[in-house]
Write a sequence for this structure.
């Protein structure tokens, strides 16, 4: 009997992780329960010292390693996507939990439109999420889909992208965060009638997240600053005489200090203040 030919995956799921023993098993179990089955899973680990790798070994997961000293969000994602075999790539943080068995289908569905470069899903906190963070989730991830949407916002904790578009321009590896917004803005700026350029919110592709301020603060606080800046609350512009507001990447460059534990309290206080800027 001839050997069965293994079908190439239609989707590559790239998960970045560091000491995620609390969450990784829940995510991988949820992926197993998905109605969509033709996928591969790639885990990019940045030096976990807990049981993360032992948990991953119980699942059909390809594990890649990046040194902690080499880690940035963009570099970790680029490593995983370079090893991906599928034309569509789902990026998921290890601490998210898909709510529905058709999560992956709903996340991938917008990519059937050739104008859509990426689609991101709704995020909601769990019982331990702070009220201020819940409010930010509700603001950033409305309950109604928008495909395409009128902004370049997205979040790489729960997103699907086109690998061929990523090959044209991988994520910026020098940013300390906001690599997702920077890439979405690049995609949106692409010209040509047949070039995918728009981001879409697939509200039905929801996940629960278990964030702490150390995770949620830097990227969302950076986005809140940028969003307020776009509404005219900041005066900095690119070039003399005005122009486009400074992109999230420009805010994030040199902001590595935001990720240090000593700034946790300041970020915790800044989140609700930033939310007021958007709600005002």
């Amino acid at each position: 009997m001839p050997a069965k030919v293994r079908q190439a995956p239609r989707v590559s799921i790239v998960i970045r992780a560091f000491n995620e023993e609390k969450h990784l098993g829940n995510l991988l179990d949820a992926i197993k329960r998905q109605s969509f089955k033709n996928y591969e899973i790639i885990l990019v680990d940045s030096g976990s010292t807990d049981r993360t790798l032992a948990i991953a070994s119980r699942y059909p997961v390809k594990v890649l390693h990046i040194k902690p000293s080499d880690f940035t969000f963009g570099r970790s994602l680029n490593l995983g996507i370079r090893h991906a075999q599928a034309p569509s790539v789902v990026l998921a943080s290890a601490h998210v939990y898909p709510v529905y068995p058709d999560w992956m289908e709903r996340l991938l569905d917008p990519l059937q439109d050739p104008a859509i470069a990426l689609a991101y899903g709704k995020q909601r906190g769990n019982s331990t999420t702070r009220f201020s963070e819940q409010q930010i989730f509700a603001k950033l991830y409305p309950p109604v889909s928008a495909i395409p949407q009128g902004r370049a916002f997205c979040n790489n904790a729960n997103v699907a992208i086109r690998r061929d578009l990523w090959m044209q321009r991988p994520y910026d590896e020098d940013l300390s965060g906001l690599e997702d917004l920077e890439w979405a803005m690049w995609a949106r700026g692409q010209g040509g009638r047949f070039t995918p350029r728009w981001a879409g919110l697939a509200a039905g592709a929801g996940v629960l997240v278990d964030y702490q301020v150390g995770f949620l603060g830097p990227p969302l606080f950076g986005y809140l600053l940028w969003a307020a800046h776009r509404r005219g609350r900041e005066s900095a512009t690119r070039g003399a005489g005005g122009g486009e507001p400074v992109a999230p990447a420009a805010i994030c460059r040199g902001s590595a200090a935001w990720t240090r534990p000593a700034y946790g309290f300041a970020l915790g206080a800044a989140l609700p203040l930033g939310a007021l800027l958007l709600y005002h």
